[in-house]
Amino acid sequence: MLPSALWFCIAILPISFATQQAPLHDSTPLLPKATSNELLYLHRKLVETVSTPEKEKKVGLWLKSYLEDKKFTVELQEVAPKRYNLLAYGKKRETPILVSSHIDTVPPFLPYYYNETSDVIGGRGSVDAKASVAAQIIAVQSLNQKLHDDISLLFVVGEETGGDGMRAFSALEDRPQYEVVIFGEPTEGKLVCGHKGILGFTITTSGKAAHSGYPWLGVSANDIMIEALGKLVRLREHLPWSEKYGNTTMNFGYISGGAAANVVAEKATAKIVTRIAAGTPKVLKGLIIDALKDVKAAAEDMGGGLDIEYMSEGFPPVDFDCGVNGFQEMTVNYGTDAPNLEGDHRRYLYGPGSIFVAHGDHEALKRRHLEQAVLDYRRLIIATSMMHGQEKERFEM
C-alpha cells in the first residue's frame, strides 16, 4: 500500500507537473497530442453552437450525445421549454464531488476562430464559459476509474440571465448532496477566494403628461428620476466596503424616460445593479429606500410617484475555499451560480481566460491556457478529494 501523497503524485504524473497558467510565449506541449486534439474539437463544437439566452437547446442536446459517447449517464432537466440542464455521471449518481459550469452565453453570437500562428481561439463563449466546460470534461475523463466514478458533471443554462438553471437544479427533490463543488468561470487560471454579492433593482417614476410650453400643467417623471438618481449618486460614495472585496459599487446601466422633447414626461425607468462588498442585500435595500424616501414623498405630493422593484433577492459576498498548493489566488467582482446551489458543501472557483474579454467582441484565449486548465482542473479535483478526507477510499490499495 502506497502513502496517499505518493498516489497523488502518480495520479498527475502522466500529463504534466505544470502548476500555473503558462506564459504566453512558451510553446512547450502541455497535453498529449490526442488529448489536445480532443480538447480543441470539444471546445470548437461548443463555441460554434449558438446558446445565447433562450437558445440553449441545441448545445445541450449535442453535449448530451457527446457525453453519452464517452460512457457517461446523462440526465436532462427541463428548466423551461427547449432549455435543459445536464447532469452526467459514471457508475453512480450519488457522488461526493460535483464539477460544474454553464453552457449559455451572452449575446450576440460571435463565430468561432482559431489562429494557429498566434495560438488564439475566439468566439462567443470561447472564454465564458465553454472553455471551462471543455476543460472540465477532458480533465474528468483523464482520471483513474475509481476517482472518475466519484465525480459528477453539471452544466446549466441561464447563468447569464439570473441563474434560473442552477436554481432549478438546486430545487430538485432527488438531487444528490455533494461534499465538494468546483465551479468553472474565467479566473485567469487562478483560484478565486470569493466574489462580490449583487442586488439589482429598477426605479420607475410616474408623472402627468402635458405640453412642454405649459409644464406647470403636468408632472415630469424625468424630473423625479433625475432627483432620485442624484440621491443615489451621493449614496454610492458611502456604501459598505471590506478589506477583501473593496468598495460596493452601483452602476446606472439603463435610463429611459418620456415620449418627446416637447412633452412633459409621463414615465421614466432606470435599471441599476449594485455589487456588494460588505453587508447583505437587506442592508442595501434599507439604504436605498432611505435615500429615496423624500423624493418619493415629494413626487406623491405633486400627483406623481416613485416605485422600486428588485430584480431578485440578491445575495451577499460569496466566499470560496482556497489554499490549494500551486494555485495563485484572487477575488473577483462578478457573480456566479455558486449561491444558487444550496447545500452544505465546500466550493471552489477556477477557470481559464479573463473576465475582461468575456462579454466583449474580442472574447478569446490562448490554446495553451485552455490546455493548462485541463491540468489544473485535474489537479484541483485530486487535491480537494484528498483535503476533504476521501483519500483513503480513493488512493489506498
From TrEMBL:
PROSITE patterns: ARGE_DAPE_CPG2_1 (PS00758), ARGE_DAPE_CPG2_2 (PS00759). It comes from the Eukaryota. Keywords: Hydrolase, Metal-binding, Signal, Zinc. InterPro entries: ArgE/DapE_CS, Bact_exopeptidase_dim_dom, Peptidase_M20, Peptidase_M20_dimer, Peptidase_M20A. Residues 194-296 form the Peptidase M20 dimerisation domain. Residues 1-18 form the signal peptide. Pfam families: M20_dimer (PF07687), Peptidase_M20 (PF01546). GO terms for molecular function: hydrolase activity; metal ion binding. Its cofactor is Zn(2+). Belongs to the peptidase M20A family. PANTHER family: ACETYLORNITHINE DEACETYLASE, PEPTIDASE M20 DIMERISATION DOMAIN-CONTAINING PROTEIN. This is Zn-dependent exopeptidase. It comes from Polyplosphaeria fusca.
